[in-house]
Amino acid sequence: MDGDVTSDTPAPRPVLTRARIVQAAVGLIEREGADALSMRRVAAELGVAVMSLYNHVPNKGALLEGVAEHVVAGLELEDDPGEPWQDRARALVRAFRKVAHDYPRCMTIVLTHKIDTQLGLRPAERALALADAAGFDGPTSVRIMRALMAYALGAQLRETGVVKTLDNLVETQAEAWAKLDAAEFPHVVALAPELASHDPETDFEFGLDLLIGALDALPRASRS
Amino acid sequence: MDGDVTSDTPAPRPVLTRARIVQAAVGLIEREGADALSMRRVAAELGVAVMSLYNHVPNKGALLEGVAEHVVAGLELEDDPGEPWQDRARALVRAFRKVAHDYPRCMTIVLTHKIDTQLGLRPAERALALADAAGFDGPTSVRIMRALMAYALGAQLRETGVVKTLDNLVETQAEAWAKLDAAEFPHVVALAPELASHDPETDFEFGLDLLIGALDALPRASRS
DNA sequence: ACGTAAGACGTACGTTGTACGTACCGTGTC
DNA sequence: GACACGGTACGTACAACGTACGTCTTACGT
User: Fold this and answer.
1) How far is the CA of B176 from the C1' of C20 (A)?
2) Cβ count near B29 (within 10 Å)
3) A181 conformational bin, left if phi > 0, alpha if psi -120 to 50, beta if neither
4) How confident is the model at residue A179 (pLDDT cuts 50, 70, 90)?
5) SS3 B194
6) Looking at residue A164, what is its pLDDT?
7) Secondary structure of B64-106 as H, E, C letters
8) What is the reported pLDDT for B126?
9) Which of A21, B34, B143, B221 has minimal Cβ neighbours within 10 Å of its Cβ?
10) Residue B9: its pLDDT value, please?
11) For residue range B78-134, what is the model confidence (pLDDT) as tens digits?
């Protein structure tokens, strides 16, 4: 009566695999935060013993790398070389924004673990391709890529709250505002409402337009 | 003979204080990495028992916040309102670069822990002040601050190698280059030398000039 | 001189990552 | 069909971790 379990569609549950482990880890992190991730919790999530995980993952660090890999694999990088390069650049940076929004609590791990698959190179390739299409020479293209990456990264960190410092405390502790003396932080106090009201979308696009506009104004060999 | 120990300059060694604990933690992190930090190691560093730390720090999380606080306190934010705002903006963003260079391995912690002192607001205040000086209105100033922060953050993360992913693997694994097929990553392969040769200084300034130039070109109420 | 509060310390508990040995199970090879 | 074998699941065990709790020493106000 249990013979048909071995059909051509084996029930995915009992089969333990690296992909399933990573997925469970990602789910756990998104639900309870990166601190809550432990090999025991992941094992419990999958209904297996702790050490069974080590048949598919050498250690916890490798699991975290797997998580980072999984997240960047979620980058939707469809590209239409026919479009103007400005729009392609926007789409690229926005793809970053999307994954960061989809996996907010995984971002810490993505940022602190390297990705040794070629997946990590896809964004770089895209950025270089469109810089090339825009008519920039090699070295400049590399710098453009790095500047775009830097902005995409930083903006996303701020928005998802991975970076707790800087101006993020603004919205959380309303009572702290009272203790600020306007003498030391006049502009911060004066612009309190603007600082408190988050409109990440336009904030993000503002900086993005700034950068792309600057790139557009840059001299280059061939104009489109 | 030990009476003069209680002079006006008490020997800093035996006196256990929060500042000394934080400093030891920072030193340990910079020497051995953030993973090596543990309450026991810090205590050993200071030659005290583990639980003695808890008289000055409620828990490890608070210690990490202290570390983050210490690092941002190192921001050298001298400012001359007389200078053109472009130069002031450059100085501000470069201050970020400097601390990130001074405490590279602490950056992970700085980024993932909030700072509840007013120290965290100093950069924001500076950015808003110079945006104001440049003649931008309130909401725009806030956006400018956020864009500058985003770039400063992202650029520094890339440079210090906190972000292991993206294009950082490029320089480390020279053998990986061979496995890249030029069909999938034509631009990456073509620009390999440029990608490998790191000139962080000019990379950083390139993006910074891009941003500030774009700001300069932005319409605003009062021109300087 | 004495009570009191603060700080340094030791012990102990629960949780973590993982090294190691064991048991099962499907797949060639005779 | 019997059998050895490689891969996988599992349980046990250990060192290191964060920290709650109780104790002891010490400095100080009275």
Assistant:
1) 34
2) 24
3) beta
4) low
5) helix
6) 63
7) HHHHHHHHHHCCCCCCCCCCCHHHHHHHHHHHHHHHHHHCHHH
8) 92
9) B221
10) 37
11) 888 899 999 999 999 999 999 999 999 999 898 888 888 888 888 989 999 999 999
Of B74, B114, B69, B121, nearest to A186 by C-alpha is B121
Residue A125, amino acid: E
Q: Which residues of chain B have pLDDT under 70?
A: 1-14, 161-180, 222-224
From CA B150, how far away is CA A151, in angstroms rounded? 6
- Return d(Cα A47, Cα A58) in angstroms, integer: 19
3 state DSSP class of A160: helix
The rounded distance, in Å, linking the Cα atoms of B62 and B219 is 44
Helix (H, G, I), strand (E, B) or coil at A222: coil
Interface touch A211/B213, C-beta < 8 Å: no
Rounded to whole angstroms, how far apart are CA atoms A93 and A153?
Answer: 9
- Whether A118 shows a pLDDT value over 50: the answer reads yes
Identify the burial level of B36 via C-beta atoms within 10 angstroms of its C-beta, where 0-12 means exposed, 13-18 middle and 19 or more buried.
exposed
DSSP state of B117: S
Helix (H) or strand (E) holding B123: helix B122-133
Task: Indicate which of B146, B159, B172 best probes the interface with A, i.e. most A CBs within 10 Å of its own CB.
Answer: B146
For residue A4, the model assigns a pLDDT of 40
